[in-house]
Amino acid sequence: MGENFILLLFVMLPIVLLIFTRQFFRQVRPQMSGQRIRSLVFGNTLVLLLLLSVLTLGGEVYFRFFYDSTDSFGLCKTTQRWFARHFERNATGFRDSANYMPTVEPGKRRVSFFGDSITAAHGIADVEDRFANIIRATNPNLEIHVLAQCGLDTGKQLELVHFLPESGYETDIVVLVYFLNDISDITPEWQEIGKRLYESPSPGFLVSNSYLFDTINARLRMAREPGVSDYYSFVRDAYEGSVWDRQKDRLTNFRDTVAANGGTFYVVTFPFLHALGDDYAYRDIHKKLNSLWLDLDVPHLDLLRVFEGMDAEDLVVSSRDAHPNESAHALAAREISTFLVEQIESEPGSE
C-alpha cells in the first residue's frame, strides 16, 4: 500500500509541477516585468523542481521494475525483491529445483553440501547455474543436496548437522563449503557491525516505501560503515587467539558428528573473491585452515589456487555484491566435481 502510494505521488508530482510551471511562464511571469530577478528565480526554481521530479520518477520506476540485482548484505529493497523473484525453495525449505528424500537413492552416492549464501547462490538468478546444480547435471551417479541458507555461519551449520540424523535424514558424503566469514557468529566485531546495519532505527515512511530512496539510503549506510567499506577486515583478527581456538573446536565437532553418523567428511574453502590479487590479505587464514584440515585428516579443496591470478570483477556478482557470479560457480563446479570423484575413487573398496 505504502509503495503504491509513493509511486503515485512520484507520478503526480511532475504533472503538478508541469502545470504550475506552464501557468507561471504563461500568466504570472508577464505580470512581473518590473521584477526581473524575482521572476528569474521563481522560473528557474520551478524548472529545476520539475526536472528533479522527472528524475525521481525515472529512478523509482527503474529500481522498482527493472533493476534486478543484489547487494552483499541484503540491505536494499531491490535485494529483497530479487529474492522473492528468484529464490524458490523446495519442500524441505532449501533453495533448489529438486526435492530431497530422507533416504539415499539406491545405486547413488549422496553428496550433501553445507554452507551459507555462497552455497545457496546469493546473486545467481538461475539456480541451475549454481556449482552444486552443475555438479548434479554432470554427475548423474551423485545425489546432490544443498543444505545451505544465507547467513548460516558455523554455529547454525553445526546445529543443522546435529539435527539431521534425528529427523531421519541419511548422510553419506558431507561437504562443508567453508567461507572465511563463517567465523562471524563468534566474532564480537561483526556482532557490532551487524547491529548497526540491521538494527538501525526506521528510516521513515518515504525511504521505507521508495525503491529509489531506500537504495540511496542503504548505499550511504554501507559507505559509512567501516566494516563494510573495508570488507570483512575484522576476519583477519578473528583467526587469532581464543576466537580461532573456539572455531577449531567447532570445526572438529563438525567432523566428529559426521563420522559418528556414518558419513564421510570433506571441506571446500572459498576465498574472498573481491580481495584477490598479489596483496590478498587473507592468505595466512587459508594456510591455517589447510593446516587444521591436514591435522584432522580431512580432505580439503582450497579454491584460492583456482581463482588466484584472475580479476575479481570477472568473478563477483557486481560491484555491489561480492558473492561469486555464474563464471565463478562454473569454475568451482569443475574443481569440486574433480575433487569429489578423486576422493570417492580413493575410498577403500571402490573399483
From TrEMBL:
The keyword Transmembrane applies. Signal peptide: none annotated. The chain crosses the membrane at residues 6-25, 46-67. InterPro entries: SGNH_hydro_sf (IPR036514). Keywords: Membrane, Transmembrane, Transmembrane helix. It comes from the Bacteria. GO terms for molecular function: hydrolase activity, acting on ester bonds. This is SGNH hydrolase-type esterase domain-containing protein.
